[in-house]
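Limitations
The structure tokens in this dataset are predictions for the assembled complex, not deposited experimental models. Users should treat interface geometry with appropriate caution, especially where small molecules or nucleic acid strands are included. An illustrative entry is reproduced here so readers can see what is and is not provided.
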Amino acid sequence: MSGYTPHTEEDVAAMLGFLGLGSLDELFAAVPAALRLAGGLDLAPGRPEPDVVAHLEDLAVANRPCGRDLVCFAGAGAYDHEVPAVTRALASRSEFVTSYTPYQPEVAQGVLQAVFEFQTLVARLTGMAVANASLYDGAAALVEAVNLAAGATGRPDVWLSHGVHPAWRQVLGTFAAGTGHLLRDVPLRHGTTDWAATGFDDLDPPAAVVVACPNFLGCLEDVAAARAVCDRTGALLVVAFDPVCAGILRAPGEWGADVVVGEGQALGMPLSFGGPYLGLFACTLDHVRRLPGRLVGETVDAEGRRAYVTTLRAREQDIRRERATSNVCTNQTLMAVTAAVQLGWLGTTGLAEVALRSARGAHYCRQGLLALHGVEPLAPAPTVREFALRLPIGAELAVERLADEGFLAGVALDPTYTDGRDDGLLVAVTERRTRAEIDAFVAVMDKALR
Amino acid sequence: MSGYTPHTEEDVAAMLGFLGLGSLDELFAAVPAALRLAGGLDLAPGRPEPDVVAHLEDLAVANRPCGRDLVCFAGAGAYDHEVPAVTRALASRSEFVTSYTPYQPEVAQGVLQAVFEFQTLVARLTGMAVANASLYDGAAALVEAVNLAAGATGRPDVWLSHGVHPAWRQVLGTFAAGTGHLLRDVPLRHGTTDWAATGFDDLDPPAAVVVACPNFLGCLEDVAAARAVCDRTGALLVVAFDPVCAGILRAPGEWGADVVVGEGQALGMPLSFGGPYLGLFACTLDHVRRLPGRLVGETVDAEGRRAYVTTLRAREQDIRRERATSNVCTNQTLMAVTAAVQLGWLGTTGLAEVALRSARGAHYCRQGLLALHGVEPLAPAPTVREFALRLPIGAELAVERLADEGFLAGVALDPTYTDGRDDGLLVAVTERRTRAEIDAFVAVMDKALR
Amino acid sequence: MSADDRFAPAGGRAASAPLLGHDTEPTLFELSRPGRAAWQLRTTDVPATPLEELVPDAHRRVAPPELAEVSERDLVGHFTRLSHRQFSVDLGAYPLGSCTMKYNPKVCDAVAALHGLADVHPAAPASCTQGWLELMVELESALCEITGMAAATLQPAAGAAGELTGLLLMRAWHAAQGGTRHKVVIPDSAHGTNPASVTLGGFEAVTVPSDARGCVDVAALRAVLDEDVAGIMLTNPNTLGLFEEDIVAVAEAVHGVGGLLYYDGANLNAILGVVRPGDMGFDIVHLNLHKTFATPHGGGGPGAGPVAVSERLAPFLPGPRPVRVGEGDDARFGWSTPPRSIGRVHSWHGNALVLARALTYILVHGGDGLRQVAQLAVLNANWLRTRLTGTFDAPFDRPCMHECVLSAASLKKATGLRALDVAKALLEEGFHSPTVYFPLIVEEALMIEPTETESLQTLEALAGAFEAIVARAASEDGARRLAEAPHETPVRRVDEARAARQLVATFDARPR
Amino acid sequence: MSADDRFAPAGGRAASAPLLGHDTEPTLFELSRPGRAAWQLRTTDVPATPLEELVPDAHRRVAPPELAEVSERDLVGHFTRLSHRQFSVDLGAYPLGSCTMKYNPKVCDAVAALHGLADVHPAAPASCTQGWLELMVELESALCEITGMAAATLQPAAGAAGELTGLLLMRAWHAAQGGTRHKVVIPDSAHGTNPASVTLGGFEAVTVPSDARGCVDVAALRAVLDEDVAGIMLTNPNTLGLFEEDIVAVAEAVHGVGGLLYYDGANLNAILGVVRPGDMGFDIVHLNLHKTFATPHGGGGPGAGPVAVSERLAPFLPGPRPVRVGEGDDARFGWSTPPRSIGRVHSWHGNALVLARALTYILVHGGDGLRQVAQLAVLNANWLRTRLTGTFDAPFDRPCMHECVLSAASLKKATGLRALDVAKALLEEGFHSPTVYFPLIVEEALMIEPTETESLQTLEALAGAFEAIVARAASEDGARRLAEAPHETPVRRVDEARAARQLVATFDARPR
Ligand SMILES: Cc1ncc(COP(=O)(O)O)c(C=O)c1O
Ligand SMILES: Cc1ncc(COP(=O)(O)O)c(C=O)c1O
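Predicted assembly:
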């Protein structure tokens, strides 16, 4: 039996006695006998913590984490940025970790203020008026953005740049089966979205035009062109941004975005095999009453002291039920708090520095790789932290070969980006990659491509 | 420059202006110019945290820690007992970690109560009336015990069992140069102290008789015999105990100890290459006014609420100065808090279980090793968690060979325990050692001894 | 805001820590000073290409985004003080109904921090992630055994995401049967995420009333069932903490019209190892790992909402899914997408570190331990229900499962005090409040879920606190003071209306 | 104790957390219930030999020692609540004079937790501990450079242990010169550990007065110096925060009679990289790594008190010492004991993990960074001294170093309020109190050490708090309220006399 339940035999006996019951089983009298599990669950009996930890350590050892084992050049939405001890120490304070949604603001000012600060930071990063208290991940944020746009315009169509993260587009497609949105894929040309692609003008005007900048290939998109499409069609502009590149790139708000979404993992979360990450969502004030998820607002308490509370609750599922703007309840608050700490640690100068150093590293690495025999750029468009290449061999094969040499070489691209071929490799370089690591990477790649 | 100082250039300028100074150097006008460091310190310039962490990781990687790398059969005062995540999580709460000696009890009830609970737990373990708030380590506790005895009896002599940890005896010897104590080594016979050793009766009666149980060889000592010597000579009985074995062994208090000392590392501290550990010190009420170090007492606040405060301060150096009973100021409070948490986690049944399982493992391991060709017991006396053997080869050689096979085989004994030979090995087995590990250890030892 | 502007920005003053006072903690932005910095980055020796050469003018920011500029020291002081302004399970009992705020073993934090788990890239090839894949396969099979299902997806990031995933599975299944159905039935006691998910799933929510015993009115259910009903969403025990005793009849009725049964697993803690959704006839189950399997709730997340399904629905599960390939010693692990998969529902593979915590919890408990969790959770809830019946109204006066729903209706009639006042007063007694005003069908509802990790002493103290509050409500002074509770907390009652009326959702939106 | 017995034992009530109230937290023993357990141990399959066969009757306990029996959940609740009753640097400014309560970078915690450092056995052969040995050698040389000394021992576990070690080195050195000397001179401003260590070192403490400027009275010193003086112990800056300007004369005088100079390094933070004890003429130096090099103080420890010495004293250092053997690539590390070593002063190698923290801190700062630490520490102290002179008396009205000592003597004369009242009142303003009544030679002393990690805003808030307190003291009401401060803390003023009069040092000694 686990050491987590405090009940002594005496306690159990006393409590059953108080209830006039003879056994714990009688507590389940309401459960039809025929349904009850006769033999109990077919699971191994409980094991003491140290045994279980040993088992999970075995599993952990069977992985190859980034760090001394694999030097990370992979990105595609999950980046190996610096996470200082101070971020881990503060974000793991048990008051943040073991509390829940701040339903009682009088004893939840800690989480509420941290989220209020997070909202402010995201608003400043995106150049938008308001940001919510987080969503599950980047894909979930995109889905909510499209739902918001559809609700705001009453239109079903969505024009979706092929430069948006493939997994996000797939998730959008999955949920479109329920919402009935019609997703139109807008192809890329030379690495950026071809808004002039034929056929679009004959279509019904869309609810949303979705573009990512930088896009999945790392290329900077002409967001103004997307904005123009919106102005012409009356669609909302949804921009998928990157919170780290935002340190040096023009803010989506300045491009005229109506809704901004993003993946916040790079703001202090470890790679975590993909989760928990952080869905970022910001929009203009016009849409705040359609905002999905929680929103923290400032107000005062009975004594006039500054205080924080979740607000505009009428949007939410627990009140609006089937007419809610979203079904989200539990979100990723702890990651939002983590991001607030990390952005506090980076500050104005630090975030810009991380972005600049990442761009420099990527630029240097790209030059090195392009000098290799048979390596070609996939697209000419300017990139920041990440770039796509075409290799003389299959990208997955290259990744396997470099893993043997201690490098995670990048992410093999979906063939739709390489007209059906499997030679596309997406490489990311963060501020943590040293010149020595990059040089070694290029040298090993050279060998691997032979 | 480090990110730890908050001063902006504007701040510094404003503050210097406020002081009417032109530069930071002028702050040091009082330092004779001739003495000032012209060129600054000859240390490498500061490096960012991640670089330094990488360097310390390199150093860490150059060690072979206990765990998956080295299965630990070493003890000699430092034991590989279970330390659960919960102990680490609670003892690392920053309120405990970043506070100091509770000089202001109104805002230090957390540390004060935790230490009060620690004192209670140590008193219960030792069977003594009072325990202090910790000393540096076992050796320091022994030094203080002898000082207490000398002060109480006005005698300089100390009869010191050779079964006391050699390092503790050396430390005692080092400090005796200042206190002028005369240390008499009482030899071992068949692994336990030979109080009948010739010559002692002609000596002046001692201030203290010091015995360890279990002693350094792991043997259980006849503490009653030591008590008898004290009754005969009027000396105080100082017993060095082990807080884990205390789970199954008779308490020193029951043997009639006047002062009990011990090393508390086994109560939740990692091996830590020897520190910070925890000096345990307990005594009878008669001696509380000579108690070294801090003592927390219960009292009430202005509203009659239960409260805790450091008490009997008049003993301490900051008040009594050259007449203080000890010079200790900073102690090992965080380790005392850790031990309180760990003992809370173990509880009455857990501590006994750890001791029992360790004894079982040691018993099983001892049998296995004694079955090997050329391996002999060093002493016949009963042991608990630790035992001494004589090997057919040098003990240090055996340790090196087993290290190559992934085992920390134990600690090579000081030749004074093996009449000058180097073949003595001290082996410890904790509750963490599995039968499989022990069997493998014995098998590898067999190979190593060939 | 004069009351607080006295203090902001207050540098290293810790008076916002309740330990020392009840002041306001300034925001990070008020602590900020230009030129201050905490960040330190690795030395890389990468050539310092100028920004202008890296980013075209049109894309470059004029100035970096203004965040906050603080020292590491001030950052630590700020968030440590904020943490002292936050209640949590680790501080005390948190009987928030429907949320299963049990104690979360610290060992799970240690596991989630393992380098070999925390630092693995989600796009690394399977050859580098065998441990993760095995972990997920192991968790999936444990969850299937616990729910009585055939297969599961671990992708959904929380319960609501699981609900929508389940509803899309329902839709895909019906489509595969060659028909589309438009309605999904939910009881009036359902959690808000259920109807919201039904809409997002493209269905129309049809609500059935609860009967006098707090369960689905089977007759009323039959009345709404027809060939256009895709299925029903239930949680059992339901949100009243009551077991749906007619579940078999319900299942037959729904299956009878070709519908599917969806099980909202948020209340699974009540029945772990006692009875399984699959054995009750459910076809689709979502689990709230952050509730039942003790992932800390993180101030509102992250969670994980895996969805388990019966054999016939397995082909529709989201992909890619972690699978074992080969057997025995040369068993390896890889990814595979089911033939008729509805597609991805997460950017990657779900909230992986939450999954690792859940597996740890399940392995430590084992089958028996999980059953005991349910038994003791139900024991605690019934002890409280019995003890507090009389102090409050018991709308459904019969044994409950893991939580009990009481009502402050009589208290309100007698004293004018509402469930909300009781909730606020309880804070000062040293406990978090129960859930109030949910489920909606109970007037002045107090929904109390003690969980199995609270001791009898804690329950006695909690009950005593409720009783003391109600006793004090009897006197006029007492009632007046209660109406203003809490008094000792870092802030007093918060003006929610003002927050909505004058929206200030960022520091920059504050009235200057 | 009625006020608290209402509450104990209180199970999971969190009302002892200041967040929710000001109740008493029950002890672990009051939370304990027979039969409860939190422990979980590894499955070993070791044969279950009965206890009787393992331990002879005479040695066996009749019953296991009674500790406490609590669940993991209650353990966590208890210590988390206690932590909320504890002020700390991470919560706010802690200007405790002579203690250097600077902010401690979190990176040091991460380093000390590295598996490769934390889990190394101290008796493992050098072949398994090369990393640790190198770390210690690296730290020793950095400390020698910082102090201007030739060699150091890292064994002493705290400052006082370093003092005694240093005095024994002094004794051994004189003995080696063929003489024994009996006296050690200390100034009347010395920290209590100095005279206490002198006695334990087997010397007689001879106190010299400070002159009107707060420094050693050189004339008075000369008067006590003779051939029986082993040496002098000084800290420079001294405990008044003042630099001993005549240090060269002092050194000449002491060396003149064949004595040695001992430097108490507790105040080294003031002069890092500016001036070195060795260059001032000191022969022996102890350092308080937990002060100067930012090891968190742990509620009272652990610390580390390495002792560095000049060339001539190196042969006497404690052993074994970590040393580099061989050079360049085939450099290895091992242990060696100096020829005339005074012997061990620690069970093992000192507080190793504290040493790792200190090295980390030193490497991050580097030579320039350390110098800047001293500059800013002194800047902060002088800013406060200047700002607060007038609010309090400045017994020595001249620039200070890292801390300033003010006096509440006039306040006492005018209002009857004492330094203690100011200290208590400051708590409610959101700051820890300064050190009071030390050094002993200053009446109603307030010893304030802000350290370099506090910002100007924090200093302004701190100064404002002092000024507000003194202002309030002017009115009778204000003074009365101040005499009763603090009011808002978890407990009010504590009855220290009662604690000493009726000693209750364990839970079992409580009056039943
Ligand atoms: C009954 C019930 N269903 C569904 C949910 C939604 O789960 P989540 O918050 O993880 O989205 C909850 C949690 O609040 C719940 O209590
Ligand atoms: C001036 C001075 N000397 C010596 C010491 C003693 O150092 P420790 O407390 O580490 O033994 C201190 C610390 O309180 C001090 O301030």
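Some entries come with short summary sentences. For this one: The first strand of chain D starts at residue 151 and ends at 153.
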